[in-house]
Write a structure and sequence with these properties.
The chain is mainly β. The protein is built from two helices and 15 strands. The chain has a single domain, classed as Jelly Rolls, CATH 2.60.120. Helix content is 11%, strand content 34%.
Amino acid sequence: MNARILITFALGGGLILSCCAQGTFQNLDFESANLPVLASGQFGGFVPVSDALPGWRVFYGANVTPESTVAYNGITISTRNASILGPNYIPQSLGETIIEGQFMPFLQAGVARDLPDVTIEQTGLVPVSAQSLQFKVGLNNQIGIGRDTNFLVSLNGQTLSLVALGATATYASYGVDVTSFAGQVSDLRFTSYSTVARPFNFVAVDSFQFLPMAVPEPRTWALLALGSALIWYAASRRKSN
């Protein structure tokens, strides 16, 4: 089926980290997907979460029962959805360019009546030495460029404060302080949600890493965020020319 977008009307080689370095969390770079390589532009249908995102669970809205499938190399229009994007996926200009490696989850929050939040979750032991958790998101969701940042990261239900660490032309890097959870078994959740200003939200995320170093102080990352905004602006101008 040659379709990259599912229309509805209801509404890079990443760094592979050892188990010891990442506690008991697994597949934090999302490269463990057990999926066939599709032809360019081909939609792979709906595949089991256990094959697409080993170690992770997927939730829509306040549902307590995990979803059993996600879309493979397909996204939706105007409805919540979780996808796994992989080799030969053709981006649709929504910030869903593969960040690193071959595979990456893409979370699309829906409208209020359609269980807006989309969450991926995993339970594991936070490394004893961990001080920060760092990760990358698609550039469209970067702090400091005049757009809402419609995603959050939490451990055991506690939302963590985001620190912008910089950006490339493809993604923005973030960090959160996890020192109070070091050595504890915790639920790690990454959630895409909608706001009034942005009723439909798209978030690409990749490359979670627990690190034995603190996130930078605000006075440091503020300068990095400004530099990231300039990079984004330059990249946008190149695309428009």
